[in-house]
Amino acid sequence: RNLLDMDTFSKSDPVVVLFVQGSGSSEWKEFGRTEVIDNTLNPDFVRKFVLDYYFEEKQNLRFDPLGSDSAVLGAQDFLGQAFVALGEVIGSQRGRLERALTGVPGKRCGTILLLAEELSNCRDIVTMQLCANKLDKKDFFGKSDPFLVFYRSNEDGTFTICHKTEVVKNTLNPVWQPFTIPVRALCNGDYDRTVKIDVYDWDRDGSHDFIGEFATSYRELSRAQSQFTVYEVLNPRKKCKKKKYVNSGTVTLLSFSVESEFTFVDYIRGGTQLNFTVAIDFTASNGMPSQPTSLHYASPYQLSAYALALKAVGEIIQDYDSDKLFPAYGFGAKLPPDGKISHQFPLNNNVDNPSCAGIEGVLESYLQSLRTVQLYGPTNFAPVINQVAGAAAQVTDGSQYHVLLIITDGVISDMLQTKEAIVTASALPMSIIIVGVGPAEFEAMEELDGDEVRVSSRGRYAERDIVQFVPFRDYVDDSGNQVLSMARLAKDVLAEIPEQLLSYMKTRDIKPRRADP
Fold it and tell me: What is the residue range of the signal peptide feature (predicted)?
């Protein structure tokens, strides 16, 4: 909107060039260009850019509008540029973001409007139930043991097996259990593509006898939502041999229902906000912050491991939080003036409002706290987990999801209470990320990360796996490239968040709110 006018006798002929930046790299590479639109300062471009989206990565994009007379960057028709992360566009209201164009000194360059939508790859899931009537008898003793085999047709006319029902023993009138199958597995998203169904009689030796077949399509099956559909089962060989052959029985579709499988992006576009909370370990085992051996030591040239972990995770999550206000706590320190030990003190020293403005605000408050509190102990996680769980319990309708980042150097002191807190939190809209810094052994943390064995406390098991633990040392780049270390760390610790959010929504049957058109 309102682009610079660089042409003398008419308006500019703009084109937009998209550049992308590799993860942990500072190099920009051209990804693609829009079409050229002649003689306008308010173009609406049609060409779309299709990008792979990864929640756990900072995907930096740069948009450069050019006057089309300039096929080469750097020539006179540079109309400005805008920098944005893909997560910012997806996390903005209705996936729509307006950003000012800059880069031409002393001039207003106008704005660029970006719209993001997820490509629908047919995420519907079908549940159906079938029965059969008067199937051919294939067994010498007793009746048949029928089962169904579903095939989807391919572009080249061949068929691929996509589902088998269970075997129903000794009957010519079987009723099969309802089953569920993704629509794309059934027909690859093409509603009119042939679906072939074979009926077999099961034999123990694997040489199952063919009873007959019938064909349908997803569209035809879906009509059964309002009526029973009956298919004739035909055996082509019998049909050729016997003049009076009618069929080998019938199969009836008893029920057919479709449900959408929602994605992380559906919820974000529907307005779900990610609320990010930070908890930092201020125990004495970290070492005196003023000493270079301390894990809290920040040199003029390098951030501490704590600050790196905070920036790596926070800079991605903040794109999904509209107010950019992050509660930040410390634990395991003695506070002034009376030296009282606290396990959830606000880093900004404001008990009524522990939120900091942006990740930079959190870093500022963290460094300020290092100068005012005394590092002490023990290492207790439960108080801060319970604090965030209390906030998560206030809103459970799917509009808010909490992510707690705990950065720690060591051995946990309140393991039983922490397990109890995690089991309680697993029923709430929240996830916990634990980053271990320093050289300590972190076996206890592995126990909290319920990938292998679900966390339990006093006979209760966690409803969902909500904890992700990683040791920071595994991500440190050997060459000292901090940007690369941060990108690697964020990629691993955030990879499970979308699935954890979806598992909460699914167990509560919460559907995404419809974004306004």
Answer: none
Whether 359 and 310 have beta carbons less than 8 Å apart is answered as yes
> What local confidence, expressed as pLDDT, does residue 411 receive?
82
According to DSSP, residue 120 is labeled P
The rounded distance, in Å, linking the Cα atoms of 487 and 251 is 55
pLDDT for the residue 465: 92
3-state secondary structure of 366: helix
Run of H or E residues at 392: helix 382-394
| Structure confidence by residue, pLDDT tens digits, 189-234 | 788 899 999 999 998 888 899 999 999 999 999 887 667 789 999 9
| DSSP state at residue 417 | H
CA 487 – CA 304 distance, rounded (Å): 16
pTM: 0.75
CA–CA separation, 256 and 222 (whole Å): 6
Return d(Cα 473, Cα 8) in angstroms, integer: 58
Q: State whether residue 210 is helix, strand or coil.
A: strand
SS3 assignment, position 101: coil
Helix axes 305-317, 482-494, angle to 10 degrees: 60
- The residues near 181 (Cβ < 8 Å, ≥ 6 apart) are 125, 126, 128, 150, 162, 163
Element (H, E) at 281: strand 273-281
Q: Where are the domains of the chain?
A: 13-115, 124-260, 272-317+378-508
Which residue matches tokens 């550049």? 19
User: Distance between CA 431 and CA 463 in Å, rounded?
Assistant: 12
Q: CATH: 3.30.420.10, 1.20.1260.10, 2.60.120.10, 2.60.40.150. Which one for 13-115? A: 2.60.40.150
pLDDT score of 74: 45
Looking at 3.40.50.800, 3.30.428.10, 3.30.2310.20, 2.60.40.150, the CATH number of the domain 124-260 comes to 2.60.40.150
Alpha carbon 488 to chain centroid distance?
17
Point out the residues of the chain with pLDDT beneath 50. Answer: 70-74, 517
pLDDT for the residue numbered 229:
87
Strands (E), 172-233: 179-182, 194-201, 209-217, 229-232
- 104: its two tokens: 């031409």
Quick one: three-class SS letters along 158-181?
CEEEEEECCCCCCCCCCECCCEEE
What is the per-residue pLDDT across 414-429, written as a single tens digit (0 to 9) for each?
Answer: 999 999 999 999 999 9
- Contact indicator for 425, 465 with CB cutoff of 8 Å: no
φ, ψ for residue 213, nearest 5 deg: -150, 165
Beta carbons within 8 Å of 264's beta carbon, 6+ residues apart:
55, 498, 501, 502
